Amino acid sequence: MIWIGPKRGSGGDRRGKVQIVPKRKLSNEWVIAVLMQKFQRHQPVYRPCAVLAEEQDILLSRTTLNPSVLAAGQLLIPVVGAQARELLAGSYVQADETPVPWQTAEQTGRNQRAYIWESSVPGGVVVFDFRMSRSRTEGISPRFPGHLAV
Fold first, then answer.
1. Pair 70, 8 in one domain
2. Residues 79, 127: contact at Cβ < 8 Å?
3. Rounded CA gap, 27 and 110, in Å?
4. What mean pLDDT do residues 111-132 have?
5. Residues of the chain with pLDDT > 90: what percent?
6. 6 vs 29: CA distance, rounded Å
7. φ and ψ at 79, to 5 degrees?
8. Contact between residue 60 and residue 101 where contact means Cβ atoms under 8 Å apart
9. 47-106 pLDDT, tens per residue?
10. Domain containing residue 123
11. How far does CA 32 lie from the centroid of its chain?
């Protein structure tokens, strides 16, 4: 049997820990496992729901899972900020952009082009940044005194 949720009405899981999303059905451990599958194995978020249905006969809606995944991502924003500060503290940064399709409610019928910027130092920290612009310094501080390789 798989336990994927907190004890009803507790606001935390059975061991008294605070949940990533209070009063949700999913345990922190399960949300973290989904995140690891998503980022380490490049699996879409719907895949763990399909696996639960196939292997355990547990129906879990993506509308239940998605808020927990998004909340966990929000908790990581300070970590990304610390990584970006560490990256910019050096004297050399490599940056590269990847174009991605982007849909907005304002412009229906076709995708807009946005960019995911990867900034890193060899053997060091890597920071990913989503931008609507291809401007090479938009994601890097204009006050960065070192060398920027694009």
1. yes
2. no
3. 38
4. 89
5. 13
6. 11
7. -65, -45
8. no
9. 888 988 898 888 888 888 888 888 988 988 999 999 988 998 889 999 888 999 988 878
10. 80-149
11. 11
